[in-house]
C-alpha cells in the first residue's frame, strides 16, 4: 500500500520537481576575468542537476575540486599540444601527468584531442590530429584506462561541403583523406563523432531566407528531405543527420553523432541579427524540452541525442564579436543572464547567510504546478496521511 502511495506522490510532485536530463551537458569555459572559483561552479552544477560538463583544458584546480562529485568531465588537449603528443612517449607523459592522478575520483569520461582542428587557421594541425589521438589512446591502454575514457575531437560544421538537404551531407574534399582515418579510429575505439552545431549562424547569415521558428525549435511547417522523405522541424537535427550521411558516404554507418556545443547568444553587434535575450531564451528552453523527451533525430529516432549547451557563463575575455562573450546562461556572479527556464536563487556576497540553489525546469511544468495550486497540494497530503493511517492499522 505504502509503495503505491509513494508512486502516486512521485507522479504528482514530478510536476513540481526538477529532474536531471541524462543526455544534457554544459560547456564550462574559463576565458573570463571574474568567473567564480571551481567549488562555486560545482555547487551551481549540482543545484542545476547537471551531471556532465566539458572544459577546454585540464585545469588541475577544476579536476581536484570535481573529485568525488557526480559530474562527468570531458577534458581537452589544447591544439598547440597536438604536435607534442603525437609522440607516444610524450602522450604517455601527458596522460600520466594530466589524467592519472585525478582518475577515478574525478569522473573523466573523455579526452578531446584539440578543438575544431579540421577548420583551424593552422592547417598543419590536420596532419597531427589522428596520430595524436592514436598516441593518447595508446597511453590510456598502457595505463589500463581505455575502458573508461574515450578519445575524440569536436568538429565545426564547416567540415561539410553539403548539408542541405540532410541526405546530401558530405565532407569537404580537402579533409576527406584525414577524415577517413579519423572515422576509422572512432569505429575501432567505439568513440563518438562530436560536432559544434549553431543554427544561430545560419540564421544570422541569411535572416530573410532562414525561418527563425525553424532554428529556434518553435512550431513551424519544417522541411521534408526530398530523397528520404524524413520530416525535420528544426535545423539542429537536420545538421546532425547531415553529418551522419557524410559519414555514410565514406563507408561508416555505426558511429554515434553527439553535439559538443550548441547555444544562442543573448547579445551581439548591430550586424549580428537575432542575438537577443528573447531568442536565446527560446532556443535553449525549447532545446531543454527536447532533451527532457530523450529525443533522437529523424534519421536515428531511437538514439537519444546527447547535447552540451554552450555555455555556462558569459566570458568577457573571449576575442571576436560581441556575441562570443554572451553565450552564457549565467553571468559570472551566478545570476541568470536571461530566463531560459532555469530557476535560480543565488548570492555572491560573503555577508549573506542564504545558500545558493538552482534547478532546471520546464516552464510548462512550472505553469502546471501553479495551476494545480495549493488545493491540489493539500489533497495529495491528505492522500498520504490517509494511507499512512491505513498502514498503521494493518500493523
From TrEMBL:
Keywords: Glycosidase, Hydrolase, Signal
Catalytic activity: Hydrolysis of (1->3)-beta-D-glucosidic linkages in (1->3)-beta-D-glucans
Gene Ontology biological process terms from the UniProt entry: carbohydrate metabolic process
Ranges annotated as spanning the membrane: none
GO molecular function, one term: glucan endo-1,3-beta-D-glucosidase activity
Keyword Membrane: no
Signal sequence, start to end: 1-17
Signal is among the record's keywords: yes
Family: Belongs to the glycosyl hydrolase 17 family.
Name of the featured protein: glucan endo-1,3-beta-D-glucosidase
Amino acid at each position: 500500500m505504502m509503495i503505491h502511495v509513494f508512486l502516486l506522490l512521485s507522479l504528482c510532485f514530478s510536476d513540481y520537481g526538477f529532474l536531471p536530463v541524462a543526455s544534457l551537458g554544459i560547456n564550462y569555459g574559463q576565458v573570463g576575468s571574474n568567473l567564480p572559483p571551481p567549488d562555486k561552479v560545482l555547487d551551481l552544477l549540482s543545484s542545476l542537476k547537471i551531471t556532465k560538463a566539458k572544459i577546454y583544458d585540464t585545469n588541475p584546480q577544476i579536476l581536484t575540486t570535481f573529485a568525488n562529485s557526480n559530474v562527468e568531465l570531458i577534458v581537452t588537449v589544447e591544439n598547440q599540444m597536438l604536435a607534442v603528443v603525437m609522440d607516444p612517449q610524450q602522450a604517455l607523459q601527458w596522460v600520466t601527468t594530466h589524467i592519472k592522478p585525478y582518475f577515478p575520483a574525478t569522473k573523466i569520461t573523455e579526452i578531446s584531442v584539440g578543438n575544431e582542428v579540421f577548420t583551424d587557421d593552422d592547417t598543419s594541425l590536420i596532419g597531427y590530429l589522428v596520430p595524436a589521438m592514436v598516441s593518447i589512446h595508446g597511453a590510456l591502454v598502457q595505463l589500463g584506462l581505455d575502458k573508461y575514457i574515450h578519445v575524440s575531437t569536436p568538429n565545426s560544421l564547416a567540415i561539410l561541403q553539403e548539408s542541405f538537404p540532410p541526405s546530401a551531407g558530405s565532407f569537404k574534399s580537402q579533409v576527406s583523406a584525414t577524415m577517413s582515418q579519423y572515422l576509422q579510429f572512432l569505429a575501432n575505439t567505439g568513440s563518438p563523432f562530436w560536432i559544434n552545431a549553431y543554427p544561430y549562424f545560419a540564421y544570422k547569415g541569411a535572416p530573410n531566407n532562414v525561418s527563425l521558428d525553424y532554428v529556434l525549435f518553435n512550431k513551424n511547417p519544417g522541411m521534408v528531405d526530398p530523397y528520404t522523405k524524413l520530416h525535420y522541424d528544426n535545423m539542429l537535427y537536420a545538421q546532425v543527420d547531415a553529418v551522419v550521411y557524410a559519414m555514410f558516404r565514406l563507408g561508416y554507418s555505426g558511429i554515434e553523432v553527439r553535439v559538443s556545443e550548441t547555444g544562442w547568444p543573448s547579445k551581439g553587434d548591430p550586424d549580428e541579427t537575432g542575438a537577443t535575450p528573447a531568442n536565446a531564451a527560446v532556443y535553449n528552453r525549447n532545446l531543454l524540452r527536447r532533451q527532457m523527451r530523450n529525443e533522437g533525430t529523424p534519421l536515428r529516432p531511437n538514439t537519444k541525442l546527447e547535447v552540451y549547451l554552450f555555455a555556462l557563463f558569459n566570458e568577457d575575455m573571449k576575442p571576436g564579436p560581441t556575441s562570443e562573450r554572451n553565450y552564457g546562461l549565467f553571468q559570472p556572479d551566478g545570476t541568470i543572464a536571461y530566463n531560459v527556464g532555469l530557476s535560480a536563487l543565488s548570492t555572491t556576497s560573503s555577508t549573506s547567510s542564504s545558500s545558493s540553489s538552482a534547478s532546471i525546469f520546464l516552464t510548462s511544468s512550472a505553469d502546471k504546478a501553479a495551476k494545480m495550486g495549493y488545493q491540489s497540494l493539500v489533497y495529495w497530503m491528505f492522500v498520504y496521511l490517509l494511507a499512512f493511517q491505513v498502514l498503521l492499522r494493518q500493523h
